[in-house]
Design goal:
Structural class: alpha+beta
Length: 507
C-alpha cells in the first residue's frame, strides 16, 4: 500500500513537472526578453559602438565563424561601420576595422588603447607578468628592459646578422640532406628561426632534431592553435562554470606550465654561472638587474617576471617569422614565375656571395615579394587583443575602461583602397611603375603604437636573410600530383596548412 502511494505521488509530481514545463519555458522567454530589452536600452544610453544583438550565454558566437572570425568581422563592418561591438559569451569586444580607424586608436589615442584585457586564461598562464599580457608599470618596465637588451645584444646590428647567416648555413645543410625528395619544412624552419631568439635569450642553439627544441616548438604551436578555440573563449566568459570541465583551456594551461618549467630550470642554472661583468644574453642581463640595489629590482626584476618574459619572447620570436617563411615557400611553389624573378635578382645583385642585409636596398622586387608574403599571409589577422586603460570617447562612441579591443589587421590587408588586388598574391602592391620599391602606409604587420612588436627589426632581418639564402641555393617545387591549398590553418596566427616541398639544389 505504501509503495502504491509513493508511485502515485511520483507520477503526480512528474505530471506537475510536465505541466509546469511550458510555463517554465514561457517565464524564461519573458525574462530573457526583459533582459535583452534592458541590455539594449542600457547599451543605447551609454552609447556603445553598434553591433548585432547578443543572445544569452553565447553572445554573438552563433554569427561568428570560429574557424575564420576575421572574415565574419569584416562582413559585420559593412553593416555596422568600422567600429562595432560583438559579444563572445559574456565578453564584450570592440572591433576596429580599416587603416584610418586602427591608426587613430593605436597612435592618436595610444595611451587609452595600450592595455591588455584581463581574462581568465590570461590570469592563469600569465598573471600580469612578462611583456605580452601584462599591464601598467610592470609592462612598461619589462618593455623598456626588453627593447634596450635586444639592442645591446645585436638586434638590427652586424653581430646578430652574423648569427642569422650562420644559422642559414645550418638550415641549408638540413635541407640538402633530403636530396630533393619531398619533406615537411615546418620543424626545421621553425627550429632555425627559434635558434636566433634562443641565442639572444639563452646564449645557445639547438640541433634541429634535439628533443628539447622539438618539444618546445610543439608546446608553443599547440598554445597558439588553441588560444582562439571555442572552449578557451567560453572559459574566459564563464571561468567558474567551465574551469572544471576538460578541454583546450586545460591543455593550454598545461603547455604553458611546461614551457615555464623549462625557462625556470634554465635560468636557475645560469644563476650559478652568472658573471655580472660578463653578461652574454638577456637572462644574464635580467639576473644582473636583480642584484642591483634599486627599488625596481625587487618590484619588477623577480623570477616570475623572468619566466614569463623569456617565454613570451621565445614564442613571439619563433612563431611569427617561421610562419611567414613557410607562407613564402608555399607561395613560391604556387607561383614559380615569381620565384624565378626573385632568383634572377639575387643572381644580379648578390651572385654566389652570402646575402647581407645591405643588399636589400638594391633588390626592390625581392623586397616587394617579402612584403607581399607578409600581407597575403595575414599572419596576425586580429593582432593581439588590446584593452582600454580608461573610459574613452572614440569617434563618437563611449568605450569603458577594460574593454577588449581588436585592431583587425585583416581588414586593412584586404582593403582595396590600399591594395589593388587584395585577394591575390601580387608583389606589384609594393612596386611603382618603374619597378622601384614603393612603401604603403597601410602595411602594418607589426601593428602600431605602444604595443607594436618589440622584435620588428630582428624579424625584418631574419625574413630577408633566410628567404634570399634559401632561394639562392634551391628552387622549390611541389611534389608530383600535390594540390596546393592556400587556406590558413585555425588558430591565433594565420599559418599555412601542413604541406610537403621539394628543394632542388641550384649550385
Amino acid at each position: 500500500m505504501v509503495k502504491t502511494t509513493q508511485c502515485k505521488q511520483r507520477l503526480l509530481a512528474f505530471a506537475d513537472m510536465i505541466m509546469m514545463y511550458p510555463i517554465f519555458i514561457l517565464v524564461s522567454f519573458v525574462v530573457i526578453l526583459i533582459l535583452v530589452n534592458v541590455f539594449k536600452n542600457q547599451k543605447k544610453s551609454i552609447n556603445y559602438p553598434p553591433g548585432p544583438m547578443p543572445l544569452p550565454i553565447i553572445g554573438n558566437m552563433h554569427v561568428i565563424n570560429t574557424l575564420n572570425p576575421q572574415k565574419s568581422f569584416t562582413e559585420m563592418s559593412k553593416k555596422y561601420g568600422p567600429i562595432f561591438t560583438v559579444y563572445v559569451g559574456a565578453q564584450r569586444l570592440v572591433i576596429l576595422c580599416g587603416y584610418d580607424t586602427v591608426k587613430d586608436a593605436l597612435v592618436n589615442h595610444a595611451e587609452e588603447f595600450a592595455g591588455r584585457p584581463c581574462t581568465a586564461i590570461g590570469s592563469k598562464v600569465s598573471n600580469e607578468h612578462g611583456i605580452l599580457f601584462s599591464n601598467g608599470e610592470n609592462w612598461k618596465v619589462m618593455r623598456r628592459f626588453t627593447l634596450s637588451t635586444l639592442r645591446d645584444y645585436g638586434m638590427g646590428r652586424k653581430d646578430v646578422e652574423n648569427k642569422i647567416t650562420e644559422e642559414c648555413d645550418c638550415l641549408l645543410q638540413a635541407i640538402r640532406s633530403h636530396g630533393g625528395k619531398p619533406f615537411n619544412n615546418q620543424t626545421i624552419l621553425t627550429a632555425a628561426v627559434a635558434n636566433i631568439i634562443v641565442c639572444i635569450l639563452l646564449g645557445q642553439r639547438y640541433e634541429y632534431d634535439d628533443p628539447t627544441i622539438i618539444k618546445l616548438i610543439y608546446l608553443v604551436n599547440e598554445i597558439i592553435r588553441i588560444m582562439e578555440s571555442r572552449m578557451v573563449r567560453l572559459y574566459n566568459s564563464y571561468p567558474s562554470l567551465v574551469g572544471w570541465l576538460p578541454g583546450s583551456h586545460r591543455t593550454m594551461s598545461k603547455n604553458h606550465l611546461e614551457v615555464q618549467n623549462f625557462v625556470r630550470e634554465t635560468f636557475t642554472r645560469k644563476q650559478r654561472e652568472l658573471d655580472v661583468n660578463n653578461q652574454r644574453n638577456l637572462i644574464d642581463a635580467f639576473l644582473a638587474k636583480q642584484q642591483e640595489d634599486k627599488p625596481e629590482s625587487t618590484l619588477y626584476f623577480h623570477d616570475e617576471n623572468l619566466v614569463k618574459l623569456v617565454g613570451n619572447l621565445f614564442a613571439a620570436g619563433m612563431e611569427t617569422s617561421s610562419t611567414t617563411l613557410r607562407w613564402g615557400l608555399l607561395l613560391m611553389i604556387k607561383y614559380p614565375e615569381i620565384q624565378k624573378t626573385v632568383q634572377n635578382e639575387i643572381e644580379n645583385v648578390i651572385g654566389s656571395a652570402q646575402p647581407q642585409v645591405e643588399h636589400r636596398k638594391e633588390m626592390p622586387y625581392t623586397d616587394a615579394v617579402i612584403h607581399e608574403i607578409q600581407r597575403f599571409g595575414d599572419i596576425a589577422p586580429g593582432s593581439l587583443p588590446h584593452a582600454t586603460t580608461t573610459d574613452v570617447t572614440f569617434r563618437g562612441y563611449n568605450i569603458p575602461k577594460g574593454t577588449t579591443v581588436i585592431p583587425l589587421l585583416h581588414s586593412i590587408f584586404k582593403d582595396k583602397a590600399y591594395f589593388e588586388k587584395p585577394e591575390e598574391f601580387y608583389p606589384g602592391h609594393f612596386l611603382d611603375s618603374e619597378g622601384k620599391f614603393k612603401k604603403n602606409e597601410a602595411f602594418i604587420p607589426f601593428s602600431l603604437g605602444k604595443r607594436s612588436c618589440a622584435g620588428e627589426n630582428l624579424a625584418k632581418m631574419e625574413l630577408f636573410l633566410f628567404f634570399t639564402t634559401l632561394l639562392q641555393n634551391f628552387t622549390f617545387k611541389a611534389p608530383s600530383g600535390a594540390k596546393l591549398d592556400l587556406s590558413p590553418a585555425v588558430g591565433l596566427l594565420s599559418s599555412p596548412l601542413p604541406y610537403e616541398i621539394c628543394a632542388i639544389p641550384r649550385r
